[in-house]
């Protein structure tokens, strides 16, 4: 990610008088052009970085400038360390490098306390089992984000419709245990959200783009998700035998005991193919109480599944 690379470059410049742009590019596995773009960002943040020409030249902090090493408290450093540790669960040697640098500025007398703070909370974003294809997509998209180049891929929608897309990537979003790409789609001429698991044949294009500014605080992926297909208020009943599934999926404060060992819960979800699949994933442990049309839809889908297996059983 760009933010931890910028901080890492600043720490390197604090400890070394000069460093070559090519060395930084090799260290962080990015282009020299990206390094110079990073230097512009660091300068914009008020830290004067100077490029010296000549055989003994390189990149360094302006002579006489000193960065206060106490600008961050131990608690703040621990919070940054924990965040990097979480992101590093999806790979990236730059995160490990930066974590080592943060650890190196902690005085020996405070090392034990710092280690305690950084092991109180561990967030691992990686899924159970193999993650090779997904990690490969994340790597390609991270590179495209860094270099501001578009990507193209075949996309399979929630309804199973395939289309070719050319997208200018803006943000990788981890939401609901799934990774998404938020970017400007050339085909739709607007910003769209794409689920990484639905992408095929993802490649970087040679087309560069100028990144526009957009306010992250508006959480565009949340509002767009809510508009997909229209909202439906669904009332579910979990049997006593399936109550563990409800407890595994929903917060305990949302679950209402039914007096027979089971639960009822009222939830709002976009009504589409994803919702039907989500409800069917609970099998016989759940029953849709409301609304009536979703009850009929689930019954129809379940009957279709049963008919398929009955036909297969008769053939054998």
Automatic annotation (TrEMBL):
GO terms for molecular function: DNA-binding transcription factor activity. Residues 2-57 form the HTH deoR-type domain. Keywords: Transcription, Transcription regulation. Pfam families: HTH_11 (PF08279), WCX (PF25583), WYL (PF13280). The keyword Transcription regulation applies. This is WYL domain-containing protein.
């Amino acid at each position: 990610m760009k933010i931890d690379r910028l901080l890492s470059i600043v720490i390197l410049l604090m400890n070394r008088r000069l460093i070559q742009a090519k060395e930084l590019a090799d260290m962080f596995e990015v282009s020299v052009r990206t390094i110079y773009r990073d230097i512009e960002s660091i300068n914009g943040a008020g830290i004067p970085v100077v490029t010296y020409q000549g055989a003994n030249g390189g990149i360094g902090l302006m002579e006489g400038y000193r960065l206060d090493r106490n600008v961050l408290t131990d608690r703040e450093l621990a919070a940054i360390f924990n965040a990097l540790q979480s992101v590093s669960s999806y790979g990236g040697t730059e995160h490990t490098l930066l974590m080592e640098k943060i650890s190196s500025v902690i005085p020996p007398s405070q090392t034990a306390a710092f280690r305690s703070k950084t092991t109180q909370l561990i967030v691992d974003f990686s899924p159970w089992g193999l993650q090779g294809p997904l990690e490969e997509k994340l790597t390609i998209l991270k590179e495209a984000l860094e270099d501001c180049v578009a990507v193209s891929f075949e996309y399979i929608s929630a309804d199973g419709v395939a289309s070719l897309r050319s997208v200018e990537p803006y943000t990788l979003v981890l939401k609901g245990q799934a990774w998404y790409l938020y970017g400007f789609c050339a085909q739709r001429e607007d910003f769209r959200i794409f689920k990484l698991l639905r992408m095929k044949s993802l490649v970087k294009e040679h087309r560069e783009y100028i990144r526009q500014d957009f306010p992250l605080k508006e959480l565009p992926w949340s509002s767009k998700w809510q508009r997909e297909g229209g909202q439906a208020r669904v009332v579910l009943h979990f049997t006593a035998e399936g109550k563990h599934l409800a407890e595994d999926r929903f917060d305990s404060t949302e679950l209402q005991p039914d007096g027979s060992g089971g639960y009822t819960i009222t939830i709002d979800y976009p009504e589409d193919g994803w919702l039907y699949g989500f409800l069917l994933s609970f099998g016989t442990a759940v029953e849709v109480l409301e609304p009536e049309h979703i009850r009929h839809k689930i019954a129809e889908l379940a009957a279709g599944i049963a008919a398929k297996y009955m036909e297969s059983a008769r053939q054998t």
